[in-house]
Amino acid sequence: xxxxxxxxxxxxxxxxxxxxxxxxxxxxxxxxxxxxxxxxxxxxxxxxxxxxxxxxxxxxxxxxxxxxxxxxxxxxxxxxxxx
Length: 83
Known about the structure:
5-stranded mixed sheet
């Protein structure tokens, strides 16, 4: 699974993307966020603010209950406004 980070998430983690193999019990974005938060202190710092993080699966914005698969590309980014 490819995970892509944008904006302050990328700055805190020091990476813009990573490939991960989550455990089989990870079924949706919410589960993935909890699991990613256990990977490192930096991950925990990013995902402590998870209610302020938006996400997409395969370039489609989704909510955190969205189901995921191992071959998905998941992106995390802060809220944004139009204009």
